[in-house]
Write a structure and sequence with these properties.
Blueprint lengths: L1 E4 L5 H11 L1 H8 L3 H8 L12 E5 L2 E10 H8 L12 H16 L8 E9 L8 H12 L2 E7 L3 H9 L2 E3 L12 E6 L6
Parallel strand pairs: 4-5
Antiparallel strand pairs: 1-2, 2-3, 3-4, 5-7, 6-7
Helix pairs in contact: 1-3, 2-3
């Protein structure tokens, strides 16, 4: 599997996978034009920008994406200040600003210096149940000391997938943990060295 930074021509693929991670959230946030606004969202200067997304290819075919952040990157992204004038032209643009603010807030959550924060991971629907998630997790677990992520308590499918890859609930949540309906999971695999 090849792992590469997302590029502008990947926007339709990346946006569809980002939307797929939580369609009801994006529909609530953006209404009927949710797909269009997710595409715009990943082009804005925010934590979910394509510069922070890795595309996973198998035989030159994009099959998955992920966004992984270090503590330093999270601090930098949390301090980004959007140009508010760009968002005040319509209600939809204002909703986009609210999503950017939510993403910045997520970047303020605490991780330790030996942890990486997995902000998103998604496999294209046509490639699910074919072992691609296992390949991505194997790669991430081999290259990171410890991975933390947040998931909705009601997302049973995601919880079972993460559990299968060795993630366990974090016993002590950071004081600044803002998401009430989610839990933090961390990888339990110990790395050598």
């Amino acid at each position: 599997m090849l792992f590469r930074q997302a590029e502008r021509e990947d926007v339709p693929f990346v946006a569809s996978l980002v939307f797929d991670t939580d369609p009801s959230h994006f529909r609530r946030a953006f209404g009927r034009k949710a797909h269009k606004f997710v595409s715009e969202l990943i082009l804005l200067n925010n934590p979910l920008n394509i510069r922070h997304i890795t595309v996973c290819e198998f035989r030159e075919q994009p099959v998955a994406i992920y966004a992984l952040y270090s503590m330093k990157e999270m601090k930098q992204l949390a301090s980004l200040k959007p140009n508010y004038r760009d968002f005040l032209t319509s209600l939809s643009r204002f909703r986009l600003l609210m999503e950017v603010r939510t993403l910045r807030k997520a970047m303020k959550m605490s991780v330790s210096s030996n942890q990486s924060y997995l902000g998103i991971i998604s496999v294209e629907r046509g490639f699910r149940n074919m072992g691609f998630a296992r390949m991505v997790f194997s790669y991430l677990l081999a290259t990171c000391q410890e991975i933390v992520l947040d998931v909705s308590k009601s997302n049973g499918r995601a919880l079972s997938i993460y559990t299968r890859y060795g993630f366990k609930p974090e016993m002590r949540l950071p004081r600044d943990y803002p998401v009430k309906d989610s839990i933090r999971l961390k990888s339990t695999r110990k790395t050598a060295g």
